[in-house]
Write a structure and sequence with these properties.
Largest sheet: 22 strands, antiparallel, barrel
Structural class: mainly beta
Mean pLDDT: 86
CATH class of the domain at 3-124: Mainly Beta
Low-confidence stretches: 1-22, 693-710, 908-919
Radius of gyration: 29 Å
Number of strands: 48
CATH superfamily of the domain at 3-124: Immunoglobulins
CATH architecture of the domain at 3-124: Sandwich
Distance between the termini: 45 Å
Helix content: under 10%
Shape: globular
CATH topology of the domain at 3-124: Immunoglobulin-like
């Protein structure tokens, strides 16, 4: 859609006086005015003023029930004053956090208006009017906690139920990835200042932001309101920093090198390493009490090494390879108060980075990738208070992303269990994403004899465009099922791609309509009621035409209705204990990967040859020219097709929870929740062109009836992306929160969970046995039974501060394979081994692996888990502050990550707590069962001990 059309639409909407932001990036205040006897007091004038900007955000009058409500407030410090004849003026000073509904009851005392009573307090630790589950990462945590890599999203792991997810996107290997509720990282949704920042091609985060520009963020892990959608996992709402009436700024620098790091146990010496990061922030008034600005910039330069380790299988390839990385991140923001009822916000963000990646472990130097990313986004929002009880809001957001992935070698990729060489088979890649978003929210506060209704109605519209170029195995990929000598040139399997690798453009119109009613039935009970409807016009390629999907055979999923119902009940009435729970249906973020891949692999654009061995690496097509090879691939019967099921439904989850919050004091509280998620209609790839007599296994009758034997002899594998996937997640999530008092603050969280699914990737893992889907059911690769995280900080005498993050976690499972099945996509497993049994070490699995290894003349193993496979890491930061003048200070700091240097080995093929991929899951590898590298690396969680020094100058 042309930009001018968007500008016209925006001008029309702004001209209608409609305004911005939903609860995604803001907070709400609620409360009741009470007299000395506890009776409600109507007619009290309540004024809410932003302490930083001096702007009066709302002037309200309490209703007949004594209540008041204010939505769409920016997080921060506020002054609440309450006035009524016959009573002294009450003044409350309070900090409110993003995503929270903060209840501040006003207890009036008898007196004159000239008298005043001032109360300073923090927001209550319990959510009296919100039944959703999640947690806030507050400004102190963002600024004070030690953070290896300094990415704000890594702090989300402090919240119970959140895991660092395996990285699935080669474009963004250095950006954090989150999992919650058993989902993978593709299913998490991110909003920055209310604007959606999710990748519509692969899912996950689209653009990274400097942590220096982040004020705080809220991580909703289950049962969030109807104004949030398109997420099965975490819904992360980030608020950027803004200017105030005081001019303030900072300059910072962080530095580290190999002398501050411990030696990796797989290296004979410390690897050369250098990283320098510096930048600045500046914010303040343009016009006091009216116009404010903020800017942040961060520049990173790094020289790292990738360590190739084959555990002696191929010593000539072992060693270190330089991996440079550079990054620039910038944020600018402008806030302007038009008048007492309207305000504007504009924000612009920029990201640019370059890296060499993909080298290390079993990946040799020539298998690396050269990656370049550039992204920018802009947000314009307008807030309009139409009346004391009506707030109407609008926002326009534009996002642009451009990426290039280039191979370091033009030779074919050759895969052995212990070594991968040659140009990466999935490069060259080029991706372009453009996104326009319009969002409108209407908030109403309606008192009645049956309680107060805080209603929100809204529409969220996105127009997305994606262009992709991706060479799949254009140079060829040769696979050895065992560690063959380098002199052996006949591979067990080969994979070739030819044709037009420019994907058809992907366009989608994504619409969300929602209504939310937070009904305060009485002082002790609030019901959270909501309904959301989501639509994607191109989720399953409705206009696509092929031999499998003729035109008009596709149907759009029009019944994506997501009801939400929850309750928050105060059984005692003192506001200290809240029992909460509820149920809801939540739909996934539509991504372009599946429809784009179907359009490309339609039998006309891109062709694949799957060649069973022996295939000569040096001359796989003897005597043929490139044109003849292309003609051969497109004419051979072994030809790949990928097709979406005609009536593909949007994946969704039914989420249920019950829990309790209790505040022991104003600064110490505990939360316990049980969460159950049932995932339905999840993507699952099934090869529908397999003969069940071909040794696949005992066929499941319904599938055998559907697919028969060979569906189409003129084709090879036909991967149908279905919605047959299903998952479950059960968890007990607990946290203890100590708010800052007596110089100490901390948060401790523990999660017990069990995640089960049919595939590890939500865009459609290809099953090993399409005739028995029950054999695919197993523990998810995100199944981490135990996870404990403690974070906190303490202020010590003489200007010293100490902060820490300590993490313990149990092993995650991984799949055990012997190679690929005949279609080249699905894994083969040892007989009797079901999916993701690695790191579980049951006797039956170990016995089955040893039978398979014996068939190849390999020695038996006793475990599938590297030693010390549980995860443990303690990170520390020590800061010394030098106060030069009242508003000028210098902070010198030292940080150490994994300070006790606990060795956290990667699993053999699966992710660990840090979310990194593993080293080896092929049971035919000579060194199977032995670790090859450690978790984390220099910038991840849990790598060998590393330290960095920093300096910050602030005014």
């Amino acid at each position: 859609m042309h930009v001018c059309r968007w500008l016209i639409c925006l001008a029309v909407l702004l001209g209608c006086g409609v305004g911005v932001w939903g609860q995604l990036s803001t907070a709400s205040l609620r409360g009741t005015a009470l007299d000395p006897n506890g009776a409600v007091v109507p007619g009290v004038t309540v004024t809410i003023e932003n302490a930083g900007t001096g702007v009066v955000e709302r002037t309200l009058t309490t209703d007949d029930t004594g209540g008041y409500a204010a939505d769409a407030l920016s997080p921060g410090a506020y002054t609440i004053s309450a006035k009524k004849d016959g009573f002294a003026t009450q003044i409350h000073k309070i900090d409110i956090q993003v995503g929270r509904v903060v209840v501040v009851d006003i207890r009036l005392t008898l007196g004159s208006l000239e008298q005043s009573v001032t109360v300073s307090s923090a927001a209550p630790l319990v959510d009296r009017e919100n039944s959703g589950i999640g947690g806030v990462v507050d400004p102190k945590s963002v600024s004070d906690l030690p953070l290896n890599g300094r990415q704000f999203g890594d702090l989300a792991a402090l919240v119970p139920g959140v895991l660092t997810a395996p990285n699935f996107d080669p474009i963004k290997t250095r950006i954090f990835n989150l999992s919650a509720g058993g989902s993978d990282g593709r299913s998490s949704n991110f909003t920055i200042d209310g604007a959606e920042n999710s990748d519509i091609v692969n899912g996950g985060l689209l653009q990274n932001f400097t942590i220096e520009g982040v004020q705080e963020f809220y991580v909703a892990t289950a049962r969030f309101g109807a104004d949030q959608g398109r997420a099965l996992g975490a819904a992360v709402s980030v608020v950027t920093k803004s200017g105030t009436n005081d001019l303030h700024g900072s300059y910072f620098v962080f530095y580290r090198n190999q002398d501050l790091n411990a030696r990796d146990p797989f290296q004979t010496r410390k690897a050369d390493f250098h990283r320098a990061q510096q930048g600045f922030t500046l914010g303040g008034p343009v016009l006091k009490n009216r116009t404010f600005f903020f800017a942040a910039y961060e520049n990173t330069g790094e020289k790292n090494l990738g360590i190739v380790n084959t555990n002696g299988a191929y010593p000539e390839f072992e060693g270190s390879v330089g991996l440079p990385f550079t990054s620039r991140l910038a944020t600018t923001r402008l806030d302007h108060q038009l008048n007492s009822k309207q305000k504007l916000m504009f924000r612009f963000n920029y990201e640019n980075n370059f890296s060499l990646q993909g080298i290390g472990g079993i990946r040799a130097a020539d298998n690396g990738i050269r990656s370049t990313n550039q992204a920018y986004s802009a947000v314009l929002s307008h807030t309009h208070v139409l009346s004391p009880r009506v707030l109407n809001t609008i926002m326009y957001h534009y996002a642009h992303f451009n990426n290039h992935l280039l191979p370091l070698s033009a030779t074919p990729e050759v895969d052995r269990p212990s070594l991968i060489t040659g140009g990466a088979f999935n490069t060259t890649q080029k991706t372009f994403i453009e996104r326009h978003q319009l969002r409108d929210d209407l908030a109403l506060n309606i008192p009645s004899s049956l309680g107060t209704h805080n209603i929100k109605l809204g529409v969220d519209y996105n127009h997305a465009l994606a262009k992709s170029f991706l060479e799949f195995a254009a140079r060829g990929q040769f696979i050895f099922f065992s560690d063959a000598p380098l002199t052996q040139t006949d591979a067990d399997f080969a994979f070739f791609g030819v044709g037009n690798f420019q994907f058809p453009d992907y366009k989608d119109n994504i619409l969300g309509l929602y209504g939310q009613d937070d009904w305060k039935v009485n002082q002790r009970l609030t019901l959270n009621l909501g309904l959301r409807w989501d639509l994607s016009t191109n989720e399953n390629n409705p206009g696509f035409r092929s031999n499998i999907a003729p035109g008009g055979s596709r149907s759009k999923d029009l019944n994506n209705f997501g009801p939400r119902i929850g309750f928050a009940w105060d059984p005692v009435g003192h506001g200290k204990t809240i029992i909460r729970g509820g149920y809801g249906i939540f739909y996934a973020l539509p991504v372009a990967t599946d429809p784009a891949v179907e359009s490309a692999f339609d039998g006309r654009r891109i062709g694949f040859a799957f060649l069973p061995g022996p295939i000569n690496i040096n001359d796989p097509f003897p005597g043929l020219t490139q044109e003849q090879i292309r003609a051969l691939v497109f004419s051979q019967p072994q030809f790949l097709l990928i097709s979406l099921a005609n009536h593909l439904r949007t994946p969704y989850a039914q989420q249920t929870s019950i829990g309790v919050q209790h505040a022991f004091t104003d600064t110490l509280g505990v939360t316990v929740d049980y969460v159950h998620n049932l995932g339905l209609k999840e993507r699952l790839g099934i090869d529908v062109n397999i003969d069940p007599a071909g040794g696949i296994g005992s066929p499941d009758t319904p599938l055998a009836q559907e697919f028969g034997a060979v569906t189409a002899a003129s084709y090879g594998p036909v991967i149908r992306v279905t919605d047959a996937g299903r998952s479950s997640y059960n968890a007990l999530e607990m946290s203890v929160n100590k708010r800052l008092s007596h110089r100490l603050t901390f948060l401790g969280s523990y999660t017990w969970s069990h995640a089960v699914d049919l595939g590890d990737d939500s865009i459609g893992s290809t099953v090993a046995n399409p005739f028995d889907l029950r054999s695919e059911r197993g523990d998810s690769n995100r199944d981490q039974r135990h996870k404990f995280v403690f974070s906190g900080s303490v202020s010590m005498p003489h200007g010293f501060d100490l902060s820490t993050i300590t993490s313990f976690a149990s092993a995650r499972p991984y799949d055990l394979v012997t190679g690929f099945s005949a279609d080249g996509f699905a894994p083969n497993r040892p007989d009797g081994v079901t999916r993701n049994r690695g790191a579980r070490d049951d006797a039956a699995t170990i016995a089955a692996i040893n039978v398979a290894r014996a068939s190849q003349g390999l020695s038996p193993i006793t475990t599938t888990s590297p030693r010390s496979f549980f995860f443990y890491s303690t990170d520390l930061r020590l800061t010394k502050q030098f106060k030069i003048k009242e508003r000028f200070r210098i902070s010198a700091l030292a940080e150490a990550f994994n300070i006790f240097n606990h060795v956290n080995y990667l699993s053999n093929g699966g992710p660990t707590f840090s979310g990194q991929s593993g080293a080896q899951n092929n049971v035919f590898a000579a060194d199977f069962g032995k670790p090859r590298r450690t978790a984390g690396g220099v910038l991840g969680s849990g790598g060998p001990r590393a330290a960095q020094l920093g300096l910050r100058i602030e005014f």
